[in-house]
Write a structure and sequence with these properties.
With 317 residues, this protein is of the alpha/beta class. The chain has helices at 3-15, 18-25, 29-43, 59-85, 99-104, 106-116, 129-137, 200-207, 226-235, 282-300, 304-309; strands at residues 48-51, 54-57, 91-97, 120-126, 143-146, 157-165, 167-172, 191-193, 220-222, 240-243, 256-258, 268-275, 313-315. The chain folds into 3 domains: 3-69, Winged helix-like DNA-binding domain superfamily/Winged helix DNA-binding domain (Arc Repressor Mutant, subunit A, Orthogonal Bundle), CATH 1.10.10; 89-165 and 269-315, D-Maltodextrin-Binding Protein, domain 2; 167-266, D-Maltodextrin-Binding Protein, domain 2.
């Protein structure tokens, strides 16, 4: 396999056709077609089929595409490292950020990072792990700041724990059951929750089943973004479950409250999540260093709002 063949493969997947791939690579259609044909011939496998609507990748093609993206990403990392050593830090950094970090510490982190690496093009995702996992897997995302499910930590991904955070059931300010003291009082309410495709049973166990609570799952709306979840809580009167710190962070402060239920939930871990055996680039290391510095500064602060935040957080590093 040659680099130009992998580039043609990726461009074809991202644009959906050979013509568009040629435009994106600034080469002829004939060159793209030749590169793809050579790739199929060398592997002796069908990688894609042509349809009236464009290219459709076979299972073989999808597997190769994932690895091709990782190869290109590693070459980009190498170029970034060399540019850094030459004093010309350039390149792109893609980071997934769990929503509650985006609501609290992220703006200061980005300012600090930009001061140190102004030439790096920074791309941020509001990244629940369900969103981050496929992007980490194919190399589109450098790392994620979030919660890694325990069953995944020894397989595809690795994690470095930054801190523990408490979780709680959350409802809108003024909800009719704001004074509830048990999860059993909330089983006839509608809920909105977020979880990864393989995280359903774990979430049900942690939130309901371990406490002897059985909920009709038709009452649960699965939300794939913080904005949708917020609207369901505030406008549709639904219950949710998440980091307790959310109730103290804009735009939720004064609008969402954390319930003091007798049922206790195990603290969760905020981690730096990467592909297993993948090394962080210099820009990625810089970003994580900035994150730690900002969190530690707030942890040492005497300000009332910072003290309230760290009532539900415990630093590990």
């Amino acid at each position: 396999m040659k680099l130009h063949q992998l580039q043609a493969l990726i461009a074809s997947a991202e644009t959906g056709s050979i013509r568009a791939a040629a435009r994106s690579l600034d080469i002829s259609q004939a060159a793209v077609t030749k590169a793809l044909r050579e790739l199929e011939t060398s592997q002796q496998l069908p990688l894609f089929t042509r349809t009236p609507s464009g290219l459709s990748f076979t299972e073989y093609g999808k597997v190769l595409l994932t690895h091709a993206r990782l190869v290109i990403k590693q070459l980009e990392h190498a170029q970034t490292e060399l540019d850094h050593l030459r004093g010309k830090a350039q390149g792109r950094l893609c980071v997934g950020v769990t929503p509650w970090i985006a609501l609290t510490f992220l703006p200061e982190v980005v300012v600090a990072f930009r001061e140190q690496m102004p030439e790096i093009r920074l791309e941020l995702f509001e990244s629940l792990m369900a969103v981050a996992q496929p992007l980490l897997r194919d190399g589109s995302m450098d790392f994620a700041i979030g919660q890694l499910h325990p069953t995944q930590s020894t397989q595809e991904f690795a994690s470095e724990i930054l801190l523990d955070y408490q979780t709680s059931v959350l409802v809108r300010q003024g909800h009719s059951l704001q004074g509830a003291r048990s999860i059993h009082e909330l089983l006839e309410q509608d809920w909105t929750l977020n979880y990864a495709p393989d995280g359903h049973d774990g979430l049900m166990q942690e939130l309901f089943w371990q406490h002897g609570a059985q909920i009709d799952e038709k009452r649960i709306v699965r939300a794939h973004s913080l904005a949708i979840l917020q609207m369901m809580v505030e406008r549709a009167d639904m219950c949710t479950w998440g980091p307790s710190i959310v109730s103290m962070a804009p735009p939720f402060l004064g609008r969402v409250v954390s319930l003091g239920l007798k049922e206790q939930f195990e603290p969760r871990q905020l981690s730096i999540v990467t592909r297993r055996n993948g090394a962080l680039s210099k820009p990625a290391q810089c970003f994580t260093d900035c994150l730690l510095q900002v969190i530690r500064r707030h942890a040492r602060s005497a300000k009332k709002e910072d003290r309230q935040l760290f009532e539900t957080l415990r630093l590990r590093l």
